[in-house]
Design a protein that fits this description.
Layout (H helix, E strand, L loop, with lengths): L5 H4 L4 H6 L3 E8 L4 H13 L2 E7 L9 H8 L7 E5 L2 H10 L2 E6 L6 E2 L10 E7 L7 H6 L2 E4 L11 H18 L1
Helix pairs in contact: 3-4, 3-7
C-alpha cells in the first residue's frame, strides 16, 4: 500500500467547498469551553460538508480566538459557515422554526443509541453538542425532537465533545450521503 499524495486526494478548493452541496446538518455548540474542541468540530464539519455551525454562549468564535481555533481547524474556520449567538435556547428555537429536526447528543432516559438511529433523507437536522462538563443544557434537551447517545462500555461514560461530534457527524453523513 502506498499513501496518497495531496494531489491524489482530490481536495476541493475553498471556493469549490462554498459552492458544493452540503450535508443537511447544522451543528450547535452549547457553551463549549475549549478552543481546540471548537477548532476540531470545524475541521470535522469541513470533512463532511456540514452546512454551518452555530456557536452559542461562551463558545468562542474564529473572529475572537483565531489562532487557537485555527490550530485544530487548519483553515476549516474559513470554509464552514458559522454564526455566534449568546442564547442557545433561542438558537435552537430558531432552527425548529426553520424546519430542522433537533437532536441533542446526550445521555438521557429513552435516548436513541447511535447504532439504532434511522434518519429520514427528506429532513434537515440540527445536532446539539454540549459543554465539556455539564453537557447540553436541560432546557435545550427539552426542546429537542430526540436525543442520541453514543454507547460506551468502560468505566468512563463521557467522551470528548469533539470526538462525539466526529462520531455522530460521520453517522449522519453515512446515512444521508452514502447509503
Amino acid at each position: 500500500m502506498q499513501k496518497l499524495t495531496v494531489e491524489e486526494m482530490g481536495r476541493m478548493s475553498t471556493q469549490e467547498f462554498k459552492q458544493s452541496t452540503k450535508l443537511p446538518v447544522t451543528v450547535v455548540l452549547d457553551n463549549v469551553r475549549s478552543l481546540y474542541n471548537v477548532g476540531s468540530v470545524f475541521r470535522t464539519s469541513d470533512a463532511f460538508r456540514v452546512e454551518r455551525i452555530v456557536l452559542c454562549g461562551i463558545t468562542a468564535s474564529p473572529d475572537t480566538c483565531l489562532v487557537e481555533i485555527h490550530k485544530t481547524a487548519l483553515g476549516a474556520e474559513q470554509t464552514v459557515e458559522w454564526i455566534h449567538t449568546d442564547d442557545t435556547l433561542k438558537a435552537v428555537q430558531d432552527l425548529i422554526d426553520e424546519g430542522y429536526t433537533t437532536v441533542a447528543i446526550e445521555q438521557v432516559h429513552d435516548s436513541v443509541k447511535l447504532q439504532n438511529l434511522k434518519l429520514d433523507k427528506s429532513l434537515k437536522y440540527a445536532l446539539i453538542l454540549g459543554n465539556e462538563v455539564k453537557g447540553v443544557q436541560q432546557q435545550v434537551v427539552d426542546l429537542c425532537t430526540m436525543c442520541v447517545e453514543i454507547p460506551q462500555f468502560g468505566t468512563k461514560h463521557s467522551l470528548n465533545v469533539s470526538v462525539s461530534a466526529g462520531m455522530v457527524i460521520w453517522e449522519f453523513a453515512r446515512q444521508l450521503l452514502i447509503d
